[in-house]
Write a structure and sequence with these properties.
- This protein folds into three domains: 33-119, no CATH class; 120-183, Type Iii Antifreeze Protein Isoform Hplc 12, CATH 3.90.1210.10; 186-244, SH3 type barrels.
- A hairpin with a 6-residue loop joins strand 2 (86-89) and strand 3 (96-105).
- The chain has helices spanning 2-31, 33-59; strands at residues 65-69, 86-89, 96-105, 108-126, 141-147, 166-167, 182-183, 186-188, 193-200, 203-211, 215-216, 220-225, 231-238, 241-244.
- It has 245 residues and is α+β, with helices and mostly antiparallel strands.
- The chain is built from two helices and 14 strands; from the N terminus they run ααββββββββββββββ.
- The protein is elongated and about 85 Å long.
- Strands 1, 2, 3, 4 and 5 form a five-stranded antiparallel β-sheet that branches. The protein has a five-stranded mixed β-barrel with strand order 9-10-12-13-14. It has a two-stranded antiparallel ribbon with strand order 6-7.
- This is Flagella basal body P-ring formation protein FlgA.
- Pfam families: ChapFlgA.
- It is found in: Periplasm.
- Belongs to the FlgA family.
- Its main location: periplasm.
Amino acid sequence: MTLLRLHYQSIAEARTMSGIILIISLLTCLLSPQARAQSDRDWRQHIEQQLLQQWRQQTGIRDDASISFIGISHQYQLPQCQLPLTIDALRPPLAGRNNIAIRCDAPYWVQNMAIQLHHMTNMVTLKRPLASDQVITNKDVRLARLDAGEQTKGYYAAIEQVLGQKAKRSLRPGTVLSEDMLSLPDLIQRRQRVTIQVDRPGIRVEMPGEALSSGHLGESIRVRNLQSRRIVEATVVEAGLVQVR
């Protein structure tokens, strides 16, 4: 009887020891570099997927895009969380730098971090130098696929948008063109004789005038009516022609 009791006790102890060994093995796997690396990839992928999905829904853009984490090493791990992570942002994500807060509700903690949203798209760039006031032609520009998140001043997406405009200052080859660098050429020069056209419902009258300032297409300038000597505001509609509405 004593031998039988010892036999069962040995079996129970063996099972207990096996359970302990199994638990230790699982913990070892969870704490291993491979497991930590997998966990690290999981939270990064989760954040990237959530932000890119929100950005694509907001913009309708399906171009190449990705997320990078600013100032965070590849070895960094978030604290443990028993529930899915929540991403809070002050505004919808945009191409470029964004500040977000990663929140866990069990146990509660918040981690603030900065991310960069990279969006690769076509931009108009210079093939050769441009002098100040030089008018842009097809020979001066080309399309290049670059990261929109790095263009804080904006960019042009089509070559047709810049043709005929002139440089406000000297520009180097490779420059990504933006609105602050270019201006429309003047169609009317100061003191130039122009035609003033009055265009209103049921009436259209034309009279000679003199431009008191230069102006480009769509710009409002002051013009002197040479018949009445009155000064009026008129809009440049083409070379030598302004319109009063």
